[in-house]
Each structure stands twice: as structure tokens, then as C-alpha cells.
Known about the structure:
The structure is a homodimer of 472-residue chains.
Chain A: E1 6-11, H1 41-47, E2 58-62, H2 66-75, E3 81-85, H3 90-105, E4 110-115, H4 123-138, E5 142-147, E6 158-164, E7 170-177, H5 182-190, E8 194-203, H6 204-214, H7 216-227, E9 230-232, E10 235-237, H8 240-243, H9 251-256, E11 262-266, H10 277-283, E12 292-294, E13 297-300, E14 306-309, E15 313-317, E16 322-326, E17 330-335, H11 342-351, E18 362-365, E19 368-376, E20 379-386, E21 394-396, E22 400-408, E23 411-415, E24 418-422, E25 427-430, E26 436-439, E27 446-454, E28 463-466
Domain Mannose-6-phosphate isomerase type II C-terminal (chains A, B): 353-467
Domain Nucleotidyl transferase (chains A, B): 8-287
Protein name (chains A, B): mannose-1-phosphate guanylyltransferase
Amino acid sequence: MPSPKIIPLVMAGGAGTRLWPLSRDTMPKQFIPLLAGGLSTFQATLQRLADPAFDAPIVITNTDFRFIAAEQMLACGVEGEIVLEPERRDSAAAIAVGAVLASRRDPEAVGLALASDHLITDAAAFRSDCKRAARLAAAGLVMTLGIPPTHPSTAYGYLAPGAELAEPGARRLTRFVEKPKLELATQYLAEGYLWNSGNFLFAAKTMLSELARHAPEVLEAAEAAVEKARRDLDFLRLDPESFARASKISIDYAVMERTDSAGMLAASFDWSDIGAWDSIHEIKPKDGDDNVLEGPAVVIDTHRSLVRSDEMLTTVVGLDDVVVVATRDAVLVASMAASGKVKNLVEQMKASGRPEASEHLRIYRPWGWYQRIDIGTRFQVKHIHVKEAGQLSLQKHFHRAEHWVVVSGTAEVTVDDRTVFVHENESVYLPIGCTHRLKNPGKIPLELIEVQVGSYTGEDDIVRIEDIYARN
Amino acid sequence: MPSPKIIPLVMAGGAGTRLWPLSRDTMPKQFIPLLAGGLSTFQATLQRLADPAFDAPIVITNTDFRFIAAEQMLACGVEGEIVLEPERRDSAAAIAVGAVLASRRDPEAVGLALASDHLITDAAAFRSDCKRAARLAAAGLVMTLGIPPTHPSTAYGYLAPGAELAEPGARRLTRFVEKPKLELATQYLAEGYLWNSGNFLFAAKTMLSELARHAPEVLEAAEAAVEKARRDLDFLRLDPESFARASKISIDYAVMERTDSAGMLAASFDWSDIGAWDSIHEIKPKDGDDNVLEGPAVVIDTHRSLVRSDEMLTTVVGLDDVVVVATRDAVLVASMAASGKVKNLVEQMKASGRPEASEHLRIYRPWGWYQRIDIGTRFQVKHIHVKEAGQLSLQKHFHRAEHWVVVSGTAEVTVDDRTVFVHENESVYLPIGCTHRLKNPGKIPLELIEVQVGSYTGEDDIVRIEDIYARN
């Protein structure tokens, strides 16, 4: 039987907090350039699919991440569809939407539901496993990619093996087991259980019928959300009202634990779910003291540690097994063993209203990014980076005037009914209340320093009059 | 016998590195606002002398620290003389200069050589001890303030007790002992030895005759350096050529270990030399988990630790006995036990040319301060703070233009032969090569954002044409 066409359904809507302060709600871990060459795991996931057996991917993500997802796809040369979830609904709804869309593209298609925040370095082995699992999926099984355990981990769910299937390493899946205690995990290892990686292959029509049987309201919500979806620039916006009817349930609970058609394939590729900082330490190249040092870092008498700094000189003296991550506005110091508790730390900080818990200092926008570099009573200073052809919305402020100094590139600035070009080493003044727009008409990025002066410099004092990126 | 007049000789020229990143060569620990109320130990040392028995202090410091010393004295309302050492020469030369100056002020004076980086909270006990020691000093003894040991420390030198003297707790000092091994330290405790605090009282004339006998070249150099000293604004600049002839030797080696007139008084006050971060943890109020948290700090599962942050949100998860100090450009993470090794870290970073090892991001000047807030190719942004009546030198740059935006206060700006007033929310442009001066003519601090654009934005591209603070 020839391999069916595989349509990747890339799940990129999550918001992991255990890699804080790098991963935050406004820019979660799948989009962070964690890997060599400044690649994100989202990009590495897409690049791993470069093979004729895989059709253009369907990326399912949150509205908030649409521009970063589009930009990262463009940057790594991958074309595909970007589907926007109006709110977070867990994996069953996302996979249902993916199955509906895949089935519309090709009723015989096999869907590959893929996490975008996992690390797999042997792409060839991954593709080969997918093709083999796809053959079983085409025959009506819902296949899970299982990871042969290296140790009795209590951090993963396990897959219980059943009868052998036609592909080597493939078996029926008899039971899903939640994260077990150590004793049970040890027993599972002896009995040939695999770790549940959360990556699945299924014929679109199989998934639709399984959903119809086990989670009909999720399927109904997904179908209606796709039916009433709205094109917005290059994005497909799912209908909010319909999508909201899907319950917040994982595909494991909704389908996998209930279906009679579950199978599993023992992966032949390496795998990490990059759960917390300790796994980053694990996967990165280390020096002679087993340290991973990234950015301006100096250590003495320090071993088995991860030190990562964006910008600030970061130093460690006389400590073993620690994680130190320094960004421009937040520093994390943790014992390697407690790195999973960063999640609790972030929850606690969110509860007490610390903006650093969920927002990055550098804010990405469709036109580029901005970053606060100084703030005081009645003033704020920002560094603004506008991409080639990028333009900010036509806007005005009620409480602040702005001084823009161009330090690189050229700005096209509209102030009320006048348009001027501002070049490197030139400045322009925008009085309170004026209507203005900033555009980069040139061939290199525009960098400017914005000095805001006024009684209130909050981000919400923007009245958007017009926006090419269709933002509200 | 009435108490003689005591002239404090405050030693403030040191450059401790063990409190890095707070203490750096450009702003060493004695001037850092480490104490409650934002006070430095230098200021606390001066305030401790508020008693008619003490004459106006003579502060002996390095040329580099003259403005910060003057400003901190002004801020805490203490008047005194500031004597500038052209280079670092250790304590014998400084005390020799102090003795010469004290003796000129009053031939019968008792000098009190005081470290400016020690912490003593019971000021009344300190003053009372000084007065009692001063009576013995007036009678010809060189008195050391000894600290009754609380434990057999191997970090301090010890004073060996001899015959009792006329004041309670005072004895002849028979021997100075260098930092001992633990066994010896334990033995010293049993035998009534005291820690050497490095604070001395002596009749000026006694010190001069002891120096003449045991270190004549130091005395000669000090006398000539004072003789040929030059008044510069409010400072007394010692003659560089003469001062350079004094050998780099401590007063302990030069005089105390050789004199027949040494005495010691057991201090009745509490004392810390704030040697390293562990002693900061020791002296500060702690929370229920024995943590000292200063600035924006959040910790979970953390005990007996010190977390101090100037600005960035700084977090610790699951660690005990650590020191975390975050400044805007550098982060230190150390085990409490290894905090003394920060000295080695700083040496290593200096050797590899890291500017953060010795320079602060905020640079203090006689007119106020400036701080880099952003830097990139061909540009740099600074926040500049000019004190009331402060003015920068008349200057020009060969490689950069500057844009100044006033965000608070008023600036008087001279550009070539034109002078303009620039108010809040106004800006001024300074083209490359223009001669310019910035002045704060107002009654509140002037805050401005300076955007530099040009091929080179290094601090050494300043041609100073005229300067009210007599800087080169």
C-alpha cells in the first residue's frame, strides 16, 4: 500500500510558563529562539517536515501569536495555513479543527497532530517513523508516537502495549496511563510501556468518526467554527461563538482513552519535550565542568549548571546544579532539581500582578517590535524597530507628546495632514493630540528612539484610527 | 586628666571588590547606600562622630572619589577637610598625612584613624570607647580598638593582650598576629586576644615620632606631600611627586608591629567590617525564612539567602544559602560560603577586560550623573541628570551629533555662540563639531534623554574646553 498524503497539524497555541523568564504568555516557548542558529522549536518542527510525503502544514495557534507564527514561517521558508483559535480550548478542539480542515483538503488524508515545542534532532528517523505510522493510520488506527523510556520517569504518561501490528515496533495500544509513581514507572519499563509524546497520526475521516462517537459536541463546535470562519489577511479566524462551545478537554481524554482503534509506534528518533530548564541543560552542548553557558556569563567553582543571559554580565560563584537565566527585566535563579517549580513561581507572580510574569519587555508587532529602555515620572523612552515596509497604525494620544530620533534607516512620518521623511540623525516632534503614522519606506530596518513626555505614558493611551494589519 | 581634642582621620580611599557588582572601582563600597535610609557606611562613619569631643574630620580619599565624598558629606550635613591622594599607597602613608595635618591643626591633638567601610550601630558606645582610648593615647600610647571575638574567625588579625592599663578593658598590646588557622584562633580566644579592627587612636606627635623612628621615608614623603599640596576648589591635593615616595605599606607593618607603645582597648560596641556579601546578610533584618530581600525580589522554597535587586524582578526557586545581587548591567549569584571569592571573580573579569568588573553603569560626576540606557551600531542613548546649578564642561565631539530631549526641569544650552533655554518636552540638536555646554539654571533637577548618533560614541570623544570643576 502506498503511503497516503500526510497533512501536518501543528499545535502552536500553548503558553508554557516553566521556561520563564524566556517563555511568557506574550511570547511562549515554542516561538523562543532556543535552538542553534536562533531557531525556535516551532520552526524546527516545520523544517522537520521537508519531504514530499508531507503536505503543506496547518498551523493552529492563538490569535495573539498570529504575527509571530507568520513571521517565523516566512523566515524559515515554510508555507502553510495559519488557523486562529479565538481562545484556548486544549487539544481535542484543536485536533478536531485540524481534522475537519484536512478532510476538506483531501478526504483520504492522514493528519499528523504535532506539538510545536518538542525537540527532535534526527529528522530523517522522525519522517520515516511518521510514514510507517501513517500506513497503519490509513488503515483505520489512531496511532500514537511512543518514546522508548530511558529511565522510569514520573513526569510522563505511559502507553501500554498490546498485540503486534504489521509495522515493526508498532502495537495495539491497550491503555493510557497518567504520570505514575516511581515504583509503577519501573514496572512499566519492564513491561515494554512507552512514554506518551502527545504526537498522533490518524486518517482524517477516522478522527472525525471517533470524535462523532466519543466527543460529538467538540466535533460540532469545530465544524461550525470552520464553517463560519473568516479570512483575515493570511489567517483563518475560527468563529468565536462556535469554537467556544467546544469543551476544554485534551485529545487523550476525549478520544484516545475511549477508542477501540488506538495503536502505538515505538519512535526511533531522539526526543525531548523541553519541559523545564533542566531539559534545556540536558540537550545543550556542555563545557568541561558540565556547564551550559550562553551569552555574557562568567562562572568560577561552578558545575552542572545552566547560565543564560541576553545582555547583562551574569556570574556564578561556587554553586553546582543551578539554573540562572537573565533577561533585561527579570532574573531567575533556581536549583536544577526545582526547575519544574518555576511554573508555581510564575503563578504566584501573576496573582500579585507582576507584569514581568506574563509580558516580555520587547513587544512584537506585525510591523516589528518596541522595547522600553527607560521610564520615570512623566516620561518613557522606547527603542522602536520597524521592518522594511512595516507601518504602525494611524493613531493619536491624549496624554503624551512624542519626540522621535531616527538612529538608522529612514522614516516616513505623517503628522496630521503633512508627510515628511526623517533620516538618520534627524528628529521629529509629535505634539499631544496630533494624528500620526510611522512607516518604513526603505530597504533596511528603521531604528528610532522615541521619547514620550506627558502625564500618562501607558500603552492603552492609543486611539487607532486605521491599521493595515486589521488590529482593533 | 581631661579628654584631649580628637581629630578623626577618615580613610576613604579603598576600592573593595568583594561586594561586586554593587561595589566597583568607580564607586567602592564605602560610598554605596548599603544602610537603612540610603546611607553609605562613609556617611554613617561621619555621623557617628557627632559629639563635641570630636573635631571636624579630615577625610583622606582618592582623587577619583572627591566629588562623591564631598556630595555625601554635604548630604549628611558634615563639614570637614577632604585630602586627595594622587594614587593608592596603603594605610601608613594615609595615616602619616593625617598625623601631619592633625598636628598642624593642634600639636596636642589625638588622631583617630577610622575605616569608612565598617558598620557600628551603637554610636554612643563607640564614642565613649574612643574618649577612653584617647586619654591613653594622649599619654603616649598608640591605641588599637580591639573587638572581643564572637567565634574563632580565621578572617581577622588578632591582638595579644599584655599588662592592664589605667582604663577598664585596656591593656598593653604585646603582639599583632596575622589571620591564623582555626586551631590557633581557638587558642587565641581562650587567651583573651582581640580582633584587630584596624581603627587606631594616637597623639599626633606620638605617631610622628613613631613614624620618624620606624618608617622615616613614609613620614618624609607625607610631610613633603602636605607641604607642597595644592588647594583645588574645596579639596587639598597632595603633591603627587612627594606622595609617590611613600612605600606601599600598612600602618600595622610600618608602626604597630614595631612600636614599644602599643595598647589595645576592648570595644564595647558591635562591629562588622562588611567584608563580603555574607556579612551583609548577617547584619540585615531577615524574614521568617531567614532571607534578606531588597528591591523587587520573589522567592519560593528558599532560605538563609540574600536577594538584592536595583530594578529587575529577581527570583529564586528552591535554593538555600545563596547570594543574588542584580544591578542593571550585571548579576552575581554565589553560594553564601563562597561569597569571599567574589574578589577572585572580579580579578578574573578585569583580566579579561570586562568593563562591568570596575565601572558602574551610572557614572557620577560633580554636576550629577549619566547612565547608558541603550546602545547599538552608530548610536547610544543616555539618561542625564544635572543637579541644581550643575553644569557640564564646555565641550565638543569629533564623531557624533547629539539630540537632547528635556523630560523634566529646564536646560540652559550653549551651542557655539548662542544660548537657549530648553524646557520640559522640548528638544535641541547639537551637530557634530559644535562647541556646547549644558547647565541646569533651575530649582529642580534637570533630566534629559541624550540620543547620540555617529560613527563613534565612546566616552573619550570629548574635547573639554572649559570646566567649572577643574577637570582635565
